[in-house]
Write a structure and sequence with these properties.
Length: 142
């Protein structure tokens, strides 16, 4: 139920932003759903504001969160050297155990948000898969 509320809230905020943007004049803002399906592009648009461009957790919005965002480069290290792909995919798509482990629901659950912005189930799955692949590629060993 909390995940549905979070997804509905995210979609409402995005809808309000679109409506407000339509009511103003001046330069246009980028679309909420980017055409690129590249993991690095998805991360830059949807994740870096909290997790930072490098994934270290120092994004511009991090200070506003109740719990600091984790360093996403250390996921494998925190899991005995293995990247828990299925668990990360579940976390991004559905909230999974990782969001609950944060102790907060500050992180959007991107599956419903992507689905609300683009009704294509296929594109939603691709976005999530490419984002998870990118997270895996940014892992550091030290």
């Amino acid at each position: 139920m909390r995940m549905r509320f979070t997804a509905a809230l995210a979609i409402a905020v995005i809808g309000a932003a679109l409506w407000a943007d339509a009511q103003t004049t001046g330069p246009t803002k980028p679309p909420l759903v980017i055409p690129s399906l590249a993991g690095s592009d998805l991360f830059a648009v949807y994740c870096s504001s909290c997790h930072g461009r490098d994934g270290a957790g120092h994004g511009t919005g991090a200070a506003a969160l109740r719990t600091p965002p984790p360093d996403l480069r250390l996921i494998a290290r925190r899991n005995h050297g293995e990247f828990p792909r299925k668990r990360i995919q579940d976390s991004v798509a559905n909230g999974g155990d990782l969001v609950r482990a944060h102790g907060t629901s500050d992180m959007p659950v991107w599956g419903p948000v992507f689905k609300g912005l683009d009704p294509s189930d296929t594109l939603t799955r691709i976005r999530i898969e490419h984002l998870v692949q990118y997270l895996e590629s940014m892992q550091v060993s030290k």
